[in-house]
Amino acid sequence: MSPDARALLAVARKELRVLRRYPLTLLNTMLFMPLYQLVLPVLLLGTAFLVKGRSLGMDELTGTSDFGGWLSAGLVGATVTGTVLSGPAQAMASERGLGTLEQTWAMPVSRRALVLGLMTCMTGLSLLAGVTMAVLVSLVAGASYGPGTVLVLPVFAALVPGLAGMGLLSASLSLLWRQAVGLTDNLGYVVTVLAGVTFPVAVLWDALRPVSYLIPTTWAIDLSRRAALGADSLYPPAVEVCALLATSGLFLAGGTALFGRMERRMRAEGALGQH
């Protein structure tokens, strides 16, 4: 195993140990906050407009009246994407406060591997939290999933490169601005809105819809809803699969290039070890 691979796994294990020491904080961040900030308000608002237990407007726009199932599919994508965007900045700020960031980054391994190790831990935990929330919403709202739900797994596998790019983007912003937590948190909220987590992308303004199409989470969520619920998709599935792969690759390439540029800039200024 290469040094970078060992460093990636070591960082992932270290982050997992730290989070396990504070289980209430982990539950609050991964489960309770999304529940009371996003899930419950949207679910209750949608339930208030049901007609004889069916969401007629959603049926017309999306091809399914299963509001709980439709929302659940979006929650998984939103949880993973939001965590990956905000996580690296929060972790770097925490290590900076503890005084361990410089020692960690001084190791003779790729700093990109350190960020990806952090992202690996957070992606796994956020996936678990997202699935847990989806199950809870499904039980409360009585969602019904079809046999195609198993196809959601390869869809989110195709999203992973895009998530890696988002994590590198978050780390790049942390290098550029030392206190980037607020910025990355807000960026996660914007992506959640544009990806159509709580409403169909079709209702977005015409000026914003092309931006939504550039986000890989948009395609992952839309494909998941079609696979699990038989809902209508924005475009034919083959086109959406290509769009998901293309945007994931674009985010990975862009995040890698930006992180490398920020790292070279910090090294040239002699500030990387004192960040």
Automatic annotation (TrEMBL):
GO molecular function, one term: ABC-type transporter activity
Membrane topology: Multi-pass membrane protein
Coiled coil residues, start to end: none
GO-annotated biological processes: response to antibiotic
Superkingdom assignment: Bacteria
Membrane-spanning parts: 24-50, 114-145, 151-175, 187-205, 238-259
The keyword Cytoplasm is assigned to this record: no
One annotated Gene Ontology cellular component of this protein: ATP-binding cassette (ABC) transporter complex
Keyword Aminoacyl-tRNA synthetase found: no
Compartment(s) where it occurs, according to its Swiss-Prot or TrEMBL record: Cell membrane; Membrane
Protein name: Transport permease protein
Species the sequence originates in: Actinomadura montaniterrae
